[in-house]
Design goal:
- This protein has 9 helices and 7 strands.
- Strand 2, helix 2 and strand 3 (56-59) form a beta-alpha-beta unit.
- The chain has a single domain (7-237), classed as NAD(P)-binding Rossmann-like Domain (Rossmann fold, 3-Layer(aba) Sandwich), CATH 3.40.50.720.
- The protein starts with 6 loop residues before the first strand and ends in a 7-residue tail after the last strand.
- It is globular and about 50 Å long.
- Helix 1 (16-27) packs across helix 9 (214-225) and helix 3 runs parallel beside helix 4.
- By secondary structure, it is α/β, with parallel strands linked by helices.
- The protein has a 7-stranded parallel beta sheet with strand order 3-2-1-4-5-6-7, sandwiched between helices.
- The longest helix has 29 residues, at 102-130.
- Bound molecules: acetoacetyl-coenzyme A.
- Residues 92, 94-96, 140-142, 147-150, 153, 183, 185, 190-191, 194-195, 198 line the site of acetoacetyl-coenzyme A (CAA).
Length: 246
């Protein structure tokens, strides 16, 4: 597999899963730009020392259309192209729907779903013109099957795959693929923040009897992003240890 000399942008690029995606795409030969929401200069320096000094970190709020367009256009100007875009930024505001506020609904829809418009739209035409592109949307098992306490998150994550499928049609004749990866429960700060009893109950129901590792999502991304993955588009690849098989 190779992504040699490709330019890759990863939103949520310094998060639990995003960091491993950046590292892996860099190993495959891509120039990687990680988009992060808010980090101090010192934190960025530390992150780069740990994960790769050749990975550029840029700050942007992907929930904000103007800010995202500005940053994506800067990347296009600096590197001349974006070959691989991984939409990985995401948040949770878990609560039962009866208690869910408009703010909790809106924050998750803005960050997890509207962000894919904000970040993808500014570079989409250039992918079509270059006749090469890989858009990979990191959704969730909970977008495929729903989850108690995640009406907002499940709606956003299901929406991401609807977006993938439509985009796949529009890119197909131009060598641009669009695919979704739907991780199950992966060991990150996001799952660590869950109530312990709820998390233990969910993990005990995973056929592989363990959570996933971020590297296991990154390897699926590397596969879909690779130059060789020319004929896979519109797919939703589950990486969930067997938790949802359908
Ligand atoms: N199905 C049906 N009923 C359920 C249920 C379920 N899955 N889970 C809980 N209930 C019931 C409980 O038994 C309880 O019933 P009683 O009132 O009769 O006792 C009632 O619903 C309330 O349950 P909780 O005590 O859990 O409610 P809470 O308000 O304290 O907590 C919650 C709500 C915070 C949303 C909690 O349920 C929760 O954490 N749920 C899991 C959410 C989740 O999976 N988040 C994933 C985060 S990681 C991620 O999102 C990454 C990814 O992509 C996978």
């Amino acid at each position: 597999m190779s992504s040699k000399d490709k330019v890759a942008v990863v939103t949520g690029g310094t998060g639990g899963i995003g960091t491993e995606i950046c590292k892996r795409l860099s190993q495959e030969g891509a120039k990687v730009i990680a988009l992060a929401y808010s980090m101090k200069d010192e934190e960025i320096k530390q992150w780069q020392e740990t994960n790769g000094s050749d990975i550029e970190v840029k700050l942007t709020n992907v929930a904000d259309a103007e800010d995202s367009a500005k940053v994506m256009n800067e990347i296009l100007e600096s590197y001349g192209k974006v070959d691989i875009l991984v939409n990985c930024a995401g948040i949770t505001r878990d609560t039962t729907f009866k208690k869910m506020t408009a703010q909790q609904w809106g924050d998750v829809i803005d960050t997890n779903l509207n962000s894919v418009y904000n970040v993808t739209q500014p570079i989409w035409n250039s992918m079509l013109e270059n006749k090469f592109g890989r858009v990979i949307n990191i959704s969730s098992i909970n977008g495929q099957r729903g989850q108690f306490g995640q009406a907002n998150y499940s709606a956003a994550k299901a929406g991401m795959h609807g977006f993938t499928m439509a985009l796949a049609y529009e890119g197909a004749a131009k060598g641009v693929t669009a695919n979704t990866i739907s991780p199950g429960y992966v060991e990150t700060a996001m799952t660590a923040a869950m109530r312990e009893d709820v998390r233990d109950m969910i993990v005990s129901g995973i056929p592989m009897k363990r959570m996933g590792q971020p590297e296991e999502i990154a390897s699926a991304v590397a596969y879909l992003a690779a130059d060789e993955s020319t004929y896979i588009t519109g797919a939703n690849l589950p990486v969930n240890g067997g938790l949802f098989i359908h």
